[in-house]
Amino acid sequence: METAKDQNEHRHQAIATALAAELERQAQAGASRIDIEALAQAVELALDPALPSSEGKRPSELNATNDD
């Protein structure tokens, strides 16, 4: 079971990784200034990633018109 300390370390690592990746992306694009909004968005995505879209329906969601 993860402790609060472990969760904070994972959160910290996710933020650091997101910032490093975004700064690297900006450097590779030749940015002369740091895009703070892009950094903020990278951190938001790291802390609350988008859920993958489902590829199907649950049995309870099926009916006679969509069960194929």
Explain this structure.
By secondary structure, this protein is mainly alpha-helical. The chain has a domain at 4-50. The protein contains 2 helices and no strands. It has helices spanning 4-28, 36-47. 3% of the residues are buried. The mean pLDDT is 87.
Topology:
Elements (H helix, E strand, L loop, with lengths): L3 H25 L7 H12 L21
Helix pairs in contact: 1-2
Secondary-structure element pattern, one letter each? HH
Helix residue percentage = 40-55%
What would you call the structural class?
Answer: mainly alpha
Cα shape: flat
Percent of residues in beta strands? under 5%
Compact summary:
This protein has two helices and no strands.
Keywords:
about 70 residues; mainly alpha; flat
